[in-house]
Write a structure and sequence with these properties.
Blueprint: E1 4-7, H1 17-35, H2 39-53, H3 63-70, H4 76-82, H5 92-100, E2 106-110, H6 114-124, E3 132-135, H7 136-139, H8 147-157, E4 164-168, H9 171-181, E5 184-188, E6 199-200, H10 205-212
Parallel strand pairs: 1-2, 1-4, 2-3, 4-5, 5-6
The structure holds magnesium ion.
Magnesium ion binds near residues 8, 10, 12, 168 and 169.
């Protein structure tokens, strides 16, 4: 029986468009304002700076780093707040979380920075479903959900990999990597193109999949 169910955040529970608004619109706009460049010029420059750092570096994910680098007058909190209306939960997300809450401890395992996790959970109201929230980049200083990352999560949760179910929309980092450790992973393919025992096109299918695998607990049942 799984003891714990773990969910990825962006692309799985929350529509990822908010992050694009912050990185590819909000920050370039502040930079344009500060320098007098046009938005397109500023965006090219800002994106060039992101690329110099690269997604393999921890700074890439750290909004505080970028605000220090660009020396904006405004705070990152103000900027995030401006685009908070772009944050939206996928419809199936609160439904499945509500159904699983109380049956299993639920954890959020994201590689977004803490600052993004906090506002996204706050605005969508989904923070209340989670017993623990882990940020790969903020808490473990790793930029990808590697095997070591999942191992650390298991240690912290005092669970064997086989006692954890993980669901996420990245084929490698939410599916292949945890699966390789023995975690029961489900790949969320919202396009619905892929089919298989470990593939979901909608989060609501998770209960059925757990049931098929003999992993579904009824409410309140002890493991
Ligand atoms: Mg994701």
């Amino acid at each position: 029986m799984p003891k714990i169910i773990s969910f990825d955040m962006d692309g799985t529970l929350v529509d990822p468009e908010f992050t694009d608004w912050v990185w590819l619109y909000g920050i370039p706009k502040l930079y344009a304002h500060k320098t007098g460049l046009s938005f397109d010029e500023a965006k090219a420059l800002v994106v060039g700076e992101y690329q110099k750092v690269g997604e393999g570096a921890i700074e890439w994910y750290d909004i505080k780093y970028w605000f220090r680098l660009f020396q904006f007058d405004e705070t990152w909190k103000t900027l995030m707040g401006r685009y908070a209306d772009k944050i939206s939960a996928f419809q199936d997300a609160p439904l499945i979380l509500g159904r699983l809450k109380g049956k299993y401890p639920l954890v959020l395992t994201s590689n977004a920075g803490r600052e993004f996790i906090e506002i996204e959970m706050d605005v969508t109201g989904m923070g209340k479903y989670f017993d623990r929230i882990f940020s790969a980049t903020s808490d473990f200083k790793v930029v990808k959900k590697t095997t070591q990352f999942y191992q650390q999560i298991c240690e912290i949760l005092e669970a064997e990999p086989g006692e954890i179910v993980h669901v996420g929309d990245h084929y490698e980092f939410d599916y292949l990597v945890p699966q390789s450790l023995g975690i029961q992973a489900f790949y969320l393919d919202r396009s619905g193109k892929k089919n298989g025992n470990s593939i979901l096109s909608d989060l609501r299918e998770l209960e059925k999949k757990l049931d098929e695998l003999g992993l579904l607990k009824s409410t309140g049942e002890e493991d």
